[in-house]
Amino acid sequence: MNVFARSVRALRPALARGYASEAPAAADNLRLTFVLPHKALYKATDVQQVNLAATSGDMGILANHVPTIEQLNPGVVEVVESGDVTKKFFVSGGFAIINPDSTLNINAVEAAAIDEISPENVQAALADAQRVANGSGSDAEKAAAKIEIEVYEAIQTALSK
Which family does it belong to (predicted)? Predict the structure, then answer.
């Protein structure tokens, strides 16, 4: 038996998974930590809800959500701070980790507030990326341009909502 198999067998009680009915006492708020490599947008801040675009589909996360790890698609992360205060961010990708204690950690590569994004600049950058993707550049340049196109199209969709 290899070392990993022995380690897992020894930890089995600690690795046991539970059901939602076995969750700890209900929390009123979701505690959000939303970070980028260079700064924290939210640091253990109580919020009502977070809506995000995950690879498994769009999700709304409230306190006491079932624990999971989700990969983020390029799209909008909407933070409902209170009944009338909502902030929207465009993220290019990352991960959301929903913990059993009603904490949510979002680690994003890049994020920008939706209201700070210029639709004209997005359109111009999209046109440039399309020109490179359809041009005579190297395979690496074309591949990078295709990724840029996907992100700029996602930003356009986010801005139109």
Answer: Belongs to the ATPase epsilon chain family.
